[in-house]
Design brief:
heterodimer; A: 406 residues; alpha/beta; Urease, subunit C, domain 1; 2 domains; 9-stranded parallel beta sheet; 22% helix; 25% strand; globular; B: 276 residues; Rossmann fold; 7-stranded parallel beta sheet; 9 helices
Chain lengths: 406, 276
Amino acid sequence: MPSNKSVSDAPITQFINCRILRDNELQREDLWVREGRILDPEKLFFDEQGYADKRVDCGGSIIAPGFIDVQINGGYGIDFSQASEDVSDGVSFVAKKILEHGVTSFCPTLVTSPPEVYHKVLPQVKVHDGGPHGAGVLGFHLEGPFISAEKKGAHPEKYLRTFKSGGLEHLMEVYGSLDDVAIVTLAPELPGSQSVVRELSQRGITVSLGHSAADLSQAEEAVQQGASFITHLFNAMLPFHHRDPGIVGLLTSDRIPAGRAVYYGMIADGIHTNPAALRIAHRAHPSGLVLVTDAITAMGLPPGRHTLGQQVIEIQGLHAYVAGTKTLSGSIATMDMCVRHFKQASGCSVQEALEAASLHPAQLLGISPKKGKLDYGSDADLVLLDEGLNVKATYISGEEVWRKGQ
Amino acid sequence: MKLIILNDYDQASEWAAKYIRNKILQFSPGPNKYFTLGLPTGSTPLGCYKKLIEYYKNGDLSFQYVKTFNMDEYVGLPRDHPESYHSFMWNNFFKHIDIKAENTHILDGNAADLQAECDSFEKKITAAGGIQLFVGGIGPDGHIAFNEPGSSLVSRTRVKTLAKDTIMANARFFDGDLSKVPTMALTVGVGTVMDAKEVMILITGAHKAFALYKAIEEGVNHMWTVSAFQQHPQTIFVCDEDATLELRVKTVKYFKGMMHVHNKLVESPPSEPKKN
């Protein structure tokens, strides 16, 4: 087939023999890519009389938008919350490794830490696109320190904080800068949270409720002010109670402002949440479910002791505990494992499982349809999967950045 | 005419596709000798297109040296609207085969000067050496392309206002909402199709039976424009049983009796070593 001279001279790649996730279903369609974005082949044909320069035979694979992990604390021995000189290198190292799990964009997460750590770490990593060097960074996820002491989980108590009067200014003192921050997790029952939630939301930062003992009305108030996410649903919050469902009640709340949605993160590693609880959440509000790994330093490493933030944790099999306790300190699951587990535990369709790891996090962060979709014009961040949803290859901006077996 | 009667829609589609395939192969198209094909849209030819795609995928047929001319297109419908005939051809045929974009021709219903667009289309057909085989369907009101009842039997490509029957028949593609159906279209004329070397009309389903009866058992009449092809030297009607329900038993028996002869036209060509 001759090369096309058209609107653009850039080469066109056609992925054939595949099923693509589009319009909420798996379609037997070819996927066309030019200049790092999904191309409309009908327009190419009629307007430009163009063709593909290169064909990639996908061997029947499923093509989904690249996975987006909005809560990942580190991995492979790297701990994002450690104030080191080469935080940027650490983030890049993990960014490259997670390509193997189909993750093409992520939010490096910092657990509750002292201001010195934020002041040192935050300036070192900017929002940037992914590529052969690794998955793209969408911005930090700051989980704490404005969280509830009662629900701190694995977070170190001595660095927890409350909002002083002056809300956002105090926040800025603690964090130093919010320039490359995508998400902030906080406990809305802390006095002064309302103005903080409002101001953060107005700045375009996703506000998430978590590590909190808030009741439903406090949670709903926070949503009114702009909060749109729940950090690892069920974990580190009041359990569902039929007379006060707490934060969990947001899934079916009738006080969500029109045109807005509440998303909720779920660690579908089979450990953090009982499969029955996962199913209840999924069935109550399927379009809000966002799969997160909440992976810690030890993800990718062998069993043993490792550091997380200012604490020591211990790996036993697939479990990671605060050393010496039975408190879970994070997961060591990978995103593709979470997708498979979620599908198996919930009985959902392949399309729903894939959307929970791509479309929903993109919608949460307001970056859809550029990310999280395979619409014409979307970024060509792709993950090729087999029938069992195992990752065969990962692409960023239409370029192959990882292939199994290489 | 040849009246080819098959048992059902699938068999009729397959017969028609094989006929087209054989015509192209016998013609032996090449870079200096393109096979020109006139093409229809609608639900009737879908089965035929699927079969042609199958022949391409099996390596039995290539559209590399085939030029196509579609019969019609709606006026005012955006080209990328899912119900435009451009979208129909892309989704149901072009995207699955190896045809080059520059060899496909579909009228532009959004052209600034619609009649100039029609005149230009006629010139393109002439420049391509005329149409070898024009494939068409028939409307319930006996129209060919959008040559509605009352169209001149020597008409050329032009703008037409659609008849109520046609709008109603097409409403099913627009969520059943009559107000969404375009009211005008650009269409090849009856005369344009008559200029083709050979014409093949696909007619399936009981709802087309009366139109078929009017087209072949009554006189040439501008109220049933397909009847014009009674005066074409090479016309072939491919039908299923249901489409013959309004014909005389005598007509049906006569042509069914000739199927063993007509089936020779669709035999698989002698196999050649596959080209790499």
